[in-house]
Each structure stands twice: as structure tokens, then as C-alpha cells.
Design brief:
There is one protein chain. The strands form 3 sheets. Strands 1, 2, 3, 4, 5, 6, 12 and 13 form an 8-stranded mixed beta sheet that branches. The protein has 11 helices and 13 strands. α3 runs parallel beside α5. The longest helix has 17 residues. Bound molecules: N,N,N-trimethyl-histidine. N,N,N-trimethyl-histidine binds next to α10 and β11.
Length: about 325
């Protein structure tokens, strides 16, 4: 794990322009900051998706295409704190569905919390946690005789370029069986005045979240980044619907990373690209799934038309 991190950091900081993978945001401090982000007034994504799950639970359950008496697996990729899924799980149980909930997450920390929370709140729930990077292994998707519903929420797909999204959807479809379904939650393409504040909140939580990546390099790889010499600098390409977060060097500086036995130099104003957050509409999604067996079956949207939950049939 730490080796992967070292390799990815070495590769990313050697590239021109410099990049770092956003998946490394999520250490214990990052998990905590992301939970704070989801509560920010500017970060509308979580509330919009939550509204869909809370207000349209019955229609959503119908769209999953399962029968109560037939066991199925409900696999959630990147489960996080499971707040959205909670409404769905609760209603599925009270409607008498026979299913196993399989949250998959890169963070062991988050999964333990989730398991304890669900054991307490929904004691009848069957749950099997799977720790891992789902991009690499799609781990929760081991062979099973049961039909599967995959939840991929929170606009997590948006961290990938469209090219990588295509590859991911192809790989995912190969792990599924015809009749399985995917619920894909994505943020809608919209104007910069709504999107940018979501990635540049007034309390500076998102800035701290992004800068935490440098703290993690300092701690885990013996880096010597001085946080005050970098600035969180998000941009939004409204035309294409892509938010990009950068960490910008405020001065000319050389940064030693001990574990890599290397020094990286930064010029004043040089930016490290740390995250893309792609925004979608149905035509973009259709392009991404064009070479896969997935078909769009049902589309749910929130009352403010900010967000989509799309049910895809394998
Ligand atoms: C969890 C990837 C969906 O891109 O909106 C939030 C992460 N980054 N604020 C997003 C994030 C900065 C988030 N995703």
C-alpha cells in the first residue's frame, strides 16, 4: 500500500504537468474532512442524492427489479459513511427483501464505522464488508449465484476521465450477469456559480482536504512540504463540465521526499493537479456506456434538478 503510494507520488510529481491521484485523499484525516465536506452548505451533491434516496425510495426499489423472496446482493462501491444507502436498506428490510449488503471501500476505518453503525441501527441486516481499491479489483464482486445490484453513488465516477470511466464500466459489466443492475449517482453539468463554490467553500474545508494530501506525503513518505507554501486552487471548465482541483506552489521551492530519495522543484505558480470532478448529462453517460452491455433503464432526479441517479441494466 505504502509502496503503491510511493510509486504513484514519484510518478505524478515527475510528470509535466505534475499530478497526484485523488484516491490518496482518504486517510483518517481525509475521511473526516470529507464527512465535513458533505455537510457544507456549498456542497449540494450529497443533499441532492440524499433527497432522491429519501423521497423516492419506493420507486427506486421498484427500479432495482428484485423480488422480495429471491435473495440478492446489494454491493456498494465506495460506500463511505453509508448515509444515503441507509434509507434504502431500511426500506428494503421493512418490505421484506432478502439481501446481503456488501459495502466496498478503500478505507478500513470507514468500513468499521459503517459496520458498527448498521449493526446498531439495522440489527437484521446481513452485511459483509470488503476492503479494497475497487478500481483495481472490483473485489466485492466475487462469483455469486445471486443477482446483484451495484450502487456507485456520490458522483465518485467523476474522479475518472471519460476514457477511464469507459474502461471501468466495461470491466464492471464483465463482472456482472445479464439482469444485474447498477445504480449510478452523478452530479449534473451546470453553471460555474453553483459548481465552483462546492469545491471552494468559504470555511476552507475543501482546501484543508486537498492540502491533507501533502501532509500525508510528509508523514508516510518523509516529505518536507510546507503547507503554507501551497494554495488550493480549483477551476471549473463550464463548457465541458469538469471541475479540476490544483495545489499551487506560492514560491519557487525544492521539496525533499525522503522515502523517494528525491527532490522535486516547483516554480512559483506551478500547479499540481490533484482531482477532477466530472459533471454529467445523459448524452455523456450514453457515450461512456456505448461499448458496454449496459442500458439506461430508469433515471431519477432531485427536485432542484442538480443530480441524477441512473439505473442501468446489464
Ligand atoms: C467523492 C469524488 C464525488 O469530486 O465531488 C469533494 C470528492 N473533492 N470535494 C467530488 C470531493 C472535493 C468528491 N467525490
Amino acid at each position: 500500500m505504502s509502496d503503491d503510494f510511493a510509486n504513484d507520488v514519484a510518478e505524478g510529481l515527475s510528470a509535466t504537468p505534475k499530478t497526484l491521484p485523488s484516491k490518496y485523499f482518504y486517510d483518517a484525516a481525509g475521511d473526516d474532512l470529507f464527512i465535513q465536506i458533505m455537510d457544507l452548505p456549498e456542497y449540494y451533491l450529497t443533499r441532492a442524492e440524499m433527497e432522491i434516496f429519501r423521497e423516492q425510495t419506493d420507486s427506486l426499489i421498484k427500479a432495482l427489479g428484485q423480488r422480495p423472496e429471491k435473495p440478492f446482493e446489494l454491493v456498494e462501491l465506495g460506500a463511505g459513511d453509508g448515509q444515503k444507502t441507509f434509507h434504502l436498506l431500511k426500506k428494503l428490510l421493512s418490505d421484506g427483501y432478502d439481501f446481503t449488503y456488501v459495502p466496498v471501500d478503500i478505507s478500513a476505518n470507514v468500513l468499521e464505522h459503517l459496520k458498527n453503525f448498521l449493526k446498531k441501527e439495522l440489527p437484521d441486516l446481513k452485511i459483509r464488508i470488503e476492503q479494497g481499491d475497487y478500481f483495481k479489483r472490483l473485489k466485492g464482486l466475487q462469483e455469486t449465484a445471486q443477482p446483484r445490484v451495484i450502487l456507485y453513488l456520490g458522483s465518485n465516477l467523476g474522479n475518472l476521465t471519460d476514457e477511464k470511466s469507459k474502461a471501468f464500466m466495461e470491466k464492471l459489466s464483465r463482472r456482472l450477469t445479464p439482469g444485474d443492475r447498477l445504480v449510478l449517482g452523478v452530479d449534473k453539468k451546470k453553471s460555474a456559480d453553483i459548481v465552483l463554490p462546492a469545491y471552494n467553500d468559504s470555511k476552507g474545508v475543501t482546501a484543508a482536504f486537498n492540502l491533507n494530501l501533502l501532509t500525508r506525503i510528509n508523514r508516510d513518505l518523509g516529505g518536507e512540504f510546507k503547507l503554507e507554501q501551497f494554495r488550493h486552487a480549483p477551476e471549473y471548465d463550464e463548457e465541458n463540465g469538469i471541475a479540476i482541483s490544483y495545489l499551487e506552489s506560492l514560491v519557487d521551492q525544492d521539496i525533499i521526499i525522503g522515502a523517494l530519495d528525491r527532490t522535486f522543484n516547483f516554480t512559483k505558480g506551478e500547479k499540481i493537479k490533484v482531482e477532477i470532478s466530472r459533471k454529467y448529462d445523459l448524452p455523456i453517460i450514453r457515450k461512456i456506456i456505448a461499448d458496454t452491455p449496459f442500458e439506461i433503464e430508469t433515471v431519477f432526479k432531485d427536485s432542484q434538478d442538480l443530480y441524477l441517479d441512473i439505473v442501468l441494466l446489464r
